[in-house]
Design a protein that fits this description.
globular; alpha/beta; binds uridine-5'-diphosphate-xylopyranose; single chain; seven-stranded parallel beta sheet; 13% strand; 455 residues
């Protein structure tokens, strides 16, 4: 029997990456494992200011930070600097922990599959290493396939597609269309290249050097994709540890008033519209969105972040007064609780992977409005494979009109097949994380292996 494990957990510095790793960290702490969670300084500051005092007192993991050496938030600048500056910072942090208490040595590192700086530092120090994948298994399979696509002349060295045909990995997984690759960034070829070079290619290397490959998904959701990656360990859907009443992985404070508002609404009546942490739109699209939601005439809960439009958020004339009785708008919702609320009928979503798992876990159907990267394929999975959602079709100018939104929401809310499929998936997700289920067993086995290693 080895020493008690002490795990260093390192996310990629973005909301959709920090949150699922935090959930994993709490799960590990619940199993008696010591966890030190390492954020960059700017993310750490956000988490601490969004966290309730009650949570801070009882938090079961240590939250620490390393300076990214940047003023403000510039993810791109960070990613450019990280490979040279971060490995040493992490190495120093681990050495300090090891020197300060002989019984508290760092035994394992779990890092986001794109956080090469952490994986590199751990490898150098001979520490056991798990890469964590916050997106779906199919997306990972596609990313791992990128080298072969380059060799075959299907994409160039920067990930730019050279052919028009969709790329298929298996008959049971939707094919990837030209503008819907895992690194697609519509209208922004520079970001597309950057994402390809800095996430896709590094992820491939990181998978190779890791001792475990954990993913926030479950086998029954993506059997064909899991079969493409023999060493994959699906451990999801990961849940927020709820014993302190709130989740501490958010960058913004949750506005819980929407839960009281949901209490006042009829069962299965509310459209929950939430588009993750980064999706933004211009004023014209924003207006269509607002008016489309209004036109359905059902209650809606809409998350409008302060940076959701490309300027100051301005609602259409008279909108707020008109929807006062049946619309609730917040800057950041307790999303998992809102989706679990009996009044919630469906999820109008940008198809971020965390949102998908959260919606599936509650059996809500989706109206799909993807924005970039894996979100297109996630939509295709939902609409074509699992049949739990409908897609929005933009008009010839690329705008999703209010009429399209109204029509599809009404269709979604009355579609019995989609409702039945959503409930079936909910049951499958619940089984996978319950005792004896596939994800439960995978997580238990991972924890046991960590505990048994003679370190
Ligand atoms: C991104 C990508 O979209 C996603 O596809 C990728 O795999 C991970 O990173 P993001 O765009 O933020 O993440 O979306 P999503 O993956 O859905 O994550 C958002 C998280 O924020 C979810 O866990 C959601 O519950 C939470 N959230 C969002 C809230 O808690 N409240 C809100 O109001 C909105």
């Amino acid at each position: 029997m080895g020493r008690k494990p002490h795990v260093i957990v390192v996310p990629y510095p973005a909301q959709g990456h920090v949150a699922p790793l935090m959930k994993l960290a709490y799960n590990l702490a619940d199993h008696g494992i010591k966890v030190t969670f390492v954020n960059t300084e700017s993310i750490h500051v956000k988490l601490m200011s969004a966290m309730s005092e009650k949570f801070k007192e009882g938090i079961p993991i240590s939250l620490v930070s390393v300076p990214e050496g940047l003023d403000g938030e510039d993810t791109r600048a960070f990613l450019e600097r990280a490979p040279s500056s971060m490995p040493l910072l992490l190495q120093n942090l681990i050495e300090n922990i090891n020197e300060s208490n002989i019984d508290d040595q760092v035994t394992h590192v779990i890092a986001d599959v794109t956080a090469e700086w952490a994986l590199e530092a751990a490898k150098k120090m001979g520490i056991e290493l798990a890469a964590f994948v916050p997106c779906g298994v199919a997306t990972l399979a596609f990313v791992l396939h990128a080298h072969r696509l380059t060799e075959a002349g299907i994409i160039d060295d920067y990930g730019v597609p050279m052919k028009d045909e969709p790329i298929s990995l298996s008959n049971s997984i939707p094919a990837w269309k030209k503008n819907e690759l895992a690194w697609s960034f519509p209208g922004n070829p520079e970001s597309e290249k950057f994402l390809f070079l800095n996430s896709v290619l590094t992820a491939t290397e990181n998978v190779k050097i890791s001792d475990w490959l954990l993913v926030n998904s479950f086998y029954e959701l993506e059997p064909s994709a899991c079969d493409l990656i023999p060493n994959i360990l699906p451990i999801g859907p990961l849940f927020a540890s709820d014993h302190l009443g709130t989740f501490a992985g958010n960058f913004c404070a949750e506005d819980s008033t929407c839960l009281n508002w949901l209490d006042q609404q009829p069962p299965r009546s509310v459209i929950y519209a939430g588009f993750g942490s980064t999706r933004a739109c211009d004023q014209q699209q924003f207006n269509e969105l607002a008016l489309g939601l209004e036109m359905v005439g059902q209650p809606f809960l809409w998350v409008v972040r302060s940076n959701f439009t490309n300027g100051i958020v301005e609602f259409p004339d008279g909108f707020l007064e008109r929807v006062e009785k049946h619309g609730k708008i917040v800057e950041w919702a307790p999303q998992e609780k809102a989706l679990a609320h009996p009044s919630t009928a469906c999820f109008f979503s940008h198809c971020g992977w965390n949102s998908i798992l959260e919606g599936i876990s509650q059996g809500v159907p989706f109206l799909c409005w993807p924005y970039f990267a894996d979100q297109f394929h996630n939509r295709n999975y939902m609409c074509e494979t699992w049949k739990i959602g409908l897609e929005l079709i933009p008009d010839e100018n690329g705008i999703v009109t209010r009429h399209e939104i109204k029509t599809k929401l009404e269709k979604l809310l009355s579609d019995k097949d989609i409702e039945a499929n959503s409930l079936k998936l909910k049951e499958m997700a619940g089984k996978s994380t319950s005792e004896g289920g596939s994800s439960f067993n995978n997580l238990t086995s991972f924890i046991e292996q960590m505990k048994q290693q003679d370190v």
